[in-house]
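Input set for joint prediction.
Command: fold jointly, output tokens.
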Amino acid sequence: MTGRMVNISKRWGFHGVEALKQAGPLYKLAMGMLAVMALAGAVVGIHGFFVGYHHVYGVTKQIPWGLLISTYIFCVVTSTGLCIISSIGHVFGGEAFMPIAKRAVYMSIMFMLGGFCIIFFDIENPFRMAIWNVISPNFSSNMWWMGTLYGAYLVFMIIEYYFLLEQNHALSRLMGFFGLVVGIAAHSNLGGIFGMLHGRPFWYGPYLPIYFIFSAAMSGGCAILFFTTLGWRFNPEIMNQRMERAVKAVTQVTIFLISVIIFFTIWKIVTGMVSEGKHLIIMSFLTGDYAINFWVFEIFLGMVLPLYLLIRSRGNNFNLILTATGLMMVGIFFMRYDIVIPGQMESVFHSLGVVEEAELLKYTPSFHEIMVSLFGLAFIGFVYLAGEKMLNGHQLEKHEIVPEGGYICPGCGAIHFMEEGETEEEAMKRHHRIW
Amino acid sequence: MKFPKINLDSLKNEGTESVTNHERRKFMKLGLAITGVYAGGKILSLSSSIGTAHASGGTEIVKKYPYNPHYSMVIRQSLCIDCEKCVEACNKTNHVPDYGYRTRILTKKYSGTLDKQVEFIPVLCNHCNDAPCVRACPTVATFKDPITGIVRMDSKRCIGCKTCMLACPYDARYFSFERHAVDKCDFCWEERLSKGEKLTACSASCPTGARTFGNLTDPENIVFKLVHQLEEQVWVLRPADDTKPNIFYMKGNMLSVDNILKEQKFKYYDPNKV
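tokens >
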């Protein structure tokens, strides 16, 4: 395959900076604003780094994890989810899912990098981490596994993306498989960090690692739909029959996964109501400080409305899908916030009945924390917009003339060559290593 | 102040025949089970993974502790008057900044009680044998000292992820910006014990003796004596977390405690009568 196409831009669909220059003024304006936001966020973050985070962040001794951790989790959950959903196609051979692979893997890498941007400004000594994580590992620490596995995950995803560009499906599939396994291990370890804190009954238990995986898959489906339909608004050419079929398939999976998460949430609330350690926090979701977060953002915008809209869209009304998943992204952001912050608001000494810890603890994100979160999110938005143009909407090169003996694969859209006596289906299976 | 009147003389002696074996054993265990001292067949639950001590019947005292000296603190809660001298001494000795603390005193208020309306509960790092913070730390920046069992910090390894602060069920950690690391009680290891002192700053400065510090493996030590008795209830905070803490609590102003410290065996033992 590589021998047939020499030009890298043709082979990878790489359109370079030229494509950016040809973008419309609004597109450029959006990119400019995202770039300014990301830069401003980075500058504010660096300012915080030098004056000391304790002066500028809203986190306290008793609520040490704030908005930055929840935004980091939002990013890595989405990244893992993109990997999970896209793997249905290019790892497990679900033909309908194949066309989304390139955009999904690209965004998965970018979400991971965005998450790392944010966590850099949350960890107090990020430079020590690079040294001591390697020379002094604690194998019983979920934090160590999470960090290390996510590092490996990023490497696998980058290699996988390279092979996807190269259209080397055998190796991209292998790397995708490793990426998926490592990603799920890393992500469930992230849930495990929370699930293994004995002193925090709201988090403790096997619920969170399991919930995180399903929730990631839901976020991934949502993100693929959002970024694909948004890309379609910028460049309607990206939608072809294969992509339409893929969007429909992802919509169906996402509908299923939203239902799963609704089920999870119902049982979290119901069991929490009868648990001594969780009751206060659950009540603050239902009627207290977090009621708006929970009912409006998490339940309505994050699950119920998108579920209705996605069903209404029938998987082919792209505007409706875009609206539904856009709202859902906002809802999911609050979902992550509602895991991290409320879990800390009941002091460990609350149950002792002492005067000092009678009240639930409060946390409000500070300006610096909001800006640093914006740094990561704006970075993701910027590279998404840049990617849509520079990578030509993540399409494969146009095949105006199909060479003899070849045909356009209905799955990946690339040209497959049939060997003698082979049918198209057999050639597709051989090409994608499907047995 | 009114006390309920119980005429003990007129009560009929039920005798010991009516108490079943099972019930008596349950009663014996009760104190220990509540205190976390008796946990899952291992007396004192201090034996951790080294676990050489196994209980039979639930009334034997552990013979071997995982550390030596096994530093421990018994807080006699009723003696605490909230003078905060311990907090002051701790802050001064260990250079604790005003935004953090290594120890503090909690206040618990009661209404409708006859004797007192307020109780003070000093809290600090429990130097747990199964310390959740040690498990959670990604870089072994916090560790159990293999000799003394003190949960210590190696500041230069701390990356500041703050997982240990959330892992701690006793809220005993804070991030110190001066040290660029999480800081916590180390039983004054750096400032006092390693320099030959016998007591922590807080227990040395306590005017009422509410904080008693010592070596749990030494039968002559006050901590050993206060823990190894059945007469007065000893408990730990948050026993359900099963961290096997080394800070024990008891009420501590009772006659029986004095008797224990005077090496008398029974609550109503009177040497003059012998």
